């Protein structure tokens, strides 16, 4: 079409396809393949969608290559063009101009193809649309985000259930052996110990060295002999042991699920994982809905994801807005001072937004960008904390330096004059002096008046 100069203005291509008559002057469509019914046509179109070339199409393309080796073939799908170029060594072109041309052909396709009933054309379009959407859903890279979202949601649910089960187990067995809960603080070790021993009277004869260290084992056995707990039946112990089995089984599955989530996050979003960790990264993806949706958010939104309720409440009451949301649980924010948490979370959100876009839209799958940005945030955090230390020392350029100690020996003599609490002059004498002074004052005034007269 372009070589024969049928299109005068490529920018206003839609004007050439306003009517079927105008479209027929530019493009002539030929039946490349003859099909018996719509099903065969649908199978051929689906093969094209999946990047497969049928035999008749290969023959036509070979004729084009034989006719002119420098001919360019316009294709609507870049992937299909890549397949044609690899298999037949025919140069293909895919650009916005080609997309507009294909759109014009589709709009007037019933007028360009003769002898094709409109009913079959509608069925053909519907079947092609279904097969295309099914293929895109089948091979969509965004669908892998669903695995992360489900895994992190299940992990949070497992943590809640584990906490409830362990609390119930400690309270239940605490009636029988309350001292064990204070000696063994680790929940999983507590459940393993209860499951292995059962009744507290069995602790003296049981060997739990594979679960507990020697010192704690000795404390447990000593506490079991003088325990203040109540006696329980064997049926109660069996129920408690069954609950311990559930806790241990769920804990093992949680560990397995966490490993799966870590591997999946490193495969899909390696830079995000390096920046904030797999748990925080997975929660951000789950909160946004997908990695692509998260990539569309600006850095300020990434910083406040998870704190929407506090944000809108602060805006409504005209108070200070929150400084962080889910990103607060990142290790970089956690290791900073309370004074610097806002600055670090803002900078971390900015760098995290860049890494998210790189993971969602970039072609590379390495984590170099995430490691580089994390190093920048760590350097900034170190500078902020060192500046605080310098400010305390009183100088902005160097850290505080201790002065050299010099021993100065001074002999001080005790002054005994401060020991006496008695006044130097008696009170009576003071009163007499005051009365005499008062008596003298009016006499002087009279003499002064007499002189004036």
UniProtKB/TrEMBL annotation:
A Pfam family hit: NOP5NT
Keyword match Nucleus: yes
Annotated keywords: Nucleus, Ribosome biogenesis
Superkingdom of this protein's organism: Eukaryota
Xref: PROSITE patterns: NOP
Subcellular location: Nucleus, Nucleolus
MF (Gene Ontology): snoRNA binding
Ranges for domain Nop: 268-386
SMART domains: NOSIC (SM00931)
GO cellular component term of the entry, any: small-subunit processome
Gene Ontology biological-process annotations: ribosome biogenesis
Keyword Protein biosynthesis: no
Database matches in PANTHER family: NUCLEOLAR PROTEIN 5 NUCLEOLAR PROTEIN NOP5 NOP58 (PTHR10894), NUCLEOLAR PROTEIN 58 (PTHR10894:SF1)
Family to which the UniProt record says this protein belongs: Belongs to the NOP5/NOP56 family.
Assembly behavior: Core component of box C/D small nucleolar ribonucleoprotein (snoRNP) particles; the core proteins SNU13, NOP56, NOP58 and FBL or FBLL1 assemble stepwise onto the snoRNA. Interacts with NOLC1/Nopp140. Interacts with NOPCHAP1, NUFIP1, RUVBL1 and RUVBL2; NOPCHAP1 bridges the association of NOP58 with RUVBL1:RUVBL2 and NUFIP1. Interacts with PIH1D1. Part of the small subunit (SSU) processome, composed of more than 70 proteins and the RNA chaperone small nucleolar RNA (snoRNA) U3.
Protein's job: Required for the biogenesis of box C/D snoRNAs such as U3, U8 and U14 snoRNAs. Part of the small subunit (SSU) processome, first precursor of the small eukaryotic ribosomal subunit. During the assembly of the SSU processome in the nucleolus, many ribosome biogenesis factors, an RNA chaperone and ribosomal proteins associate with the nascent pre-rRNA and work in concert to generate RNA folding, modifications, rearrangements and cleavage as well as targeted degradation of pre-ribosomal RNA by the RNA exosome.
Name recorded for this polypeptide: Nucleolar protein 58
Species this protein is from: Columbina picui (Picui ground-dove)
